């Protein structure tokens, strides 16, 4: 059993949202027929009621697909200080979902969404607290060994990988170490408005050099706020979870034809499967 998961992020309903790109995304979803859709935060531009309602209407057009949705920092009021401090997720919970840390099982994958917004401490860079890490630990403790374990969070666990200045989420190293111990294989995120597909071992050696976590950052899928090499670009990712490999296909929107199309493909062996994939079978038993 496998799963095909479409990963979108940073939709930014409101002034930056590009309707033509939003329609092209719906066409791509229909053509790709994923088993589930992940939205890794920033549904709105300024956390206004009408923007959440626009996002809700858009998601209703995707009601045939199981969805895991989490908030981003833009889904919390910035300048409405009382609301940000005392009821930061009120509109999100009312219109989108009351569950800020959702769990979704699809095919051979279990996804745990973690709300990394921190309205009272860090409106931009986000946080994950120890209770959330215990939550993911408890969920994954009941997951069979052969299942693919995926974490979804809005903010980045790895520092910026290009000339645009970014820093990791505070506490990212601690979280990565916890996810490695929990045998998480992949993290899906957004926030940076440009894509990155690689491994936590590129940044944090950690306690297990053979057990890094695949990091998949999505750019902005439907807004005009792309950054770095994805300035004015729109992207999404398609993740396929096989028994032996995890495959990420990166899609880019081509304005001249009004469609998304594949730009690159990345295949990763699942833990313990590298030799089998290479044709060597399992390691021989020691004499």
What does this structure look like?
The structure is a single chain. The chain has one domain: Purple Acid Phosphatase, chain A, domain 2, CATH 3.60.21.10. Helices cover 23% and strands 25% of the residues. It has 7 helices and 12 strands. Strands 3-2-1-10-11-12 form a 6-stranded mixed β-sheet. A 6-stranded mixed β-sheet has the order 4-5-6-7-9-8, with helices on one face. A hairpin with a 4-residue loop joins strand 11 and strand 12 (259-269). The chain is globular.
Question: What's the helix and strand layout?
Answer:
Blueprint: E1 3-8, H1 19-32, E2 36-40, H2 49-60, E3 67-70, H3 81-86, H4 90-95, E4 103-106, E5 109-114, H5 130-141, E6 148-153, H6 172-181, E7 186-189, E8 196-199, E9 214-217, E10 235-241, E11 245-254, E12 259-269, H7 274-278
Parallel strand pairs: 1-2, 2-3, 5-6, 6-7, 7-9
Antiparallel strand pairs: 1-10, 4-5, 8-9, 10-11, 11-12
Oligomer: single chain
CATH topology: Purple Acid Phosphatase, chain A, domain 2
List segments where confidence is low: pLDDT < 50 over at least 5 consecutive residues: none
In whole angstroms, how far apart are the ends?
A: 35 Å
Strand fraction band? 15-25%
Question: How many beta-strand elements?
Answer: 12
Largest sheet: 6 strands, mixed
Total of DSSP H or I helical runs spanning 4+ residues: 7
Mean pLDDT: 91
Shape: globular
Query: Architecture in CATH?
Result: 4-Layer Sandwich
How many domains comprise the coordinates? 1
Order of helices and strands: EHEHEHHEEHEHEEEEEEH
CATH class: Alpha Beta
| Rg on CA atoms, Å | 18 Å
Helix and strand content put the structural class at: alpha/beta
How would you write the strand order of the largest sheet? 3-2-1-10-11-12
Mind telling me the CATH superfamily name?
A: Metallo-dependent phosphatases
Helix content: 10-25%
């Amino acid at each position: 059993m496998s799963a095909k998961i479409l990963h979108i992020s940073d939709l930014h309903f409101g002034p930056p949202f590009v309707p033509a790109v939003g329609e092209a995304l719906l066409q791509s979803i229909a053509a790709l027929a994923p088993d589930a859709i992940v939205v890794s935060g920033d549904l709105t531009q300024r956390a206004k009621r009408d923007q959440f309602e626009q996002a809700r209407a858009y998601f209703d057009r995707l009601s045939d697909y199981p969805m895991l949705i989490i908030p981003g920092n833009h889904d919390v009021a910035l300048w409405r200080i009382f609301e940000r401090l005392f009821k930061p997720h009120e509109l999100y919970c009312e219109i989108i979902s009351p569950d800020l840390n959702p769990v979704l099982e699809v095919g051979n994958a279990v996804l745990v969404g973690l709300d990394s917004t921190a309205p009272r401490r860090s409106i931009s860079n986000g946080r994950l607290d120890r209770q959330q890490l215990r939550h993911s630990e408890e969920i994954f403790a009941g997951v069979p060994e052969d299942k693919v374990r995926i974490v979804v969070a809005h903010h980045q666990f790895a520092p910026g990988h290009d000339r645009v200045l970014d820093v990791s989420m505070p506490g990212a190293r601690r979280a990565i170490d916890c996810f490695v111990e929990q045998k998480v294989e992949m993290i899906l995120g957004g926030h940076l408005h440009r894509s990155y597909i690689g491994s936590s071992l590129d940044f944090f050696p950690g306690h297990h050099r053979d057990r890094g976590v695949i990091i998949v950052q999505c750019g902005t899928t439907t807004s005009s706020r792309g950054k770095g090499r994805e300035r004015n670009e729109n992207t999404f990712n398609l993740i396929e979870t096989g028994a032996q490999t995890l495959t990420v296909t990166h899609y880019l929107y081509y304005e001249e034809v009004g469609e998304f199309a594949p730009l690159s493909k990345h295949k990763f062996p699942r833990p313990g499967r590298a030799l089998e994939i290479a044709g060597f079978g399992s390691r021989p038993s020691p004499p």
